[in-house]
Model the fold of this input.
Amino acid sequence: MSQQPSISCIIPTFNRRHVLVGTIEMLLDQSSAAKEIVVVDQSTDIPPEVSSRLQSWHEQGRIKWVRQPEPNASMARNRGALESTGDVIVFLDDDIRVSRDFVASYQRAFADPEVRAVAGQVLEGGCETVGTRDPRADDPDYGWMFCKRNFDKPFTGAFLMAGNMGVRRTDFMAVGGMDEHYMKGAFREEADFAMRWRKSGKMIHFRPDVSLIHLAGPGIQDGGARHWTYRTPWTAMHHYFGSWYFLLNHATWRSLPYLLAVDMRSAGLNKRNLRKPWMIPLHLSRWLWALPGALRARIEGPRLIGTAHAAKGKNGG
Done:
C-alpha cells in the first residue's frame, strides 16, 4: 500500500479577522492532519485578539504565520508554496467551512500518482449542487468559462478555483506557480495557471467529494480579495487589468468572442447599467484605461515563481 501524500494547506488572507480564525480552527481539527497550515497574511488591520491567536498558533508550531506587506493574492500563493514542504499544496480561501474529513479527501484524491492537480467543489449560499454540464465546458480553449464550481460529478479538463485547489508541489514549481503580474485580488489568475498547466500536457481532475463551503456574500464583507469593490458601482481596476492581461496571453480566435463578451459586461454593458446609461461610457473608459498596463506586462513576460522577484519575497525582501 502506497504512503499517503502529505498535504500543505496554504491560505492567503487580507483583513479577514475572526472569519480567518474559524477557518484555521476547522483545519486544525481534522481526522487526518495536514502536514502544515501556511497563512500568508497581507492584512493592514488585525484586531489584537486575532493577532494574539495567530501568534500563539505560530509559536506552538500549529501554523506558519507569514507576513507579506504587498496585498497580492498571486504573490501570496507563491510565497506559501515556497514556505511549504508537503507533497501536495492545497490553496484555500480564508472564509471557508470544511468537514473533519477535508484533508483526508485530498489525500484520497492524490493517492493515484497519475493525478497531478485537483479542483475541489465549492458550495455557496444554500449549498446547492448542479448535475448538468454545459457541452461547451469540454472545449480546450474556453471550456473553463462554462464549468460550474458546484458540479456534482467528477471530470477532467482545465478548470479550477484557487479557493479550493490542490497541486503536487514539484509540478506547481515546474510550471512557475502563479503569475504575480495579476494584482491584488488577482482576477483571472486561476484561468491563467490552468492554461499554462494544460499547455504543459497535464490535466486537472475535478472532484466533487473534495468539497467546501465558501462564505461569500452578505455578512462576510470584512476584508478579503473583493473588499476593493464593496459599496461601490465600479469594477476594480485590477479586475480590468487581469481581464486584459489574460486575454493578451491566452486568447485564441475561438475564445476571443467569449472573453470579450464577459469583459464588456463587467465594463458596463449589463442590465444594471442600462438603467443608468450615462454610466456606461465611464465604465468603458476605465476598462480601456487598464489596457496599456496589461500590454506592458505582456511584453515584459510572466512574473513566475522562479524569478528573482519571487525569490526575494521568500527571503522577506
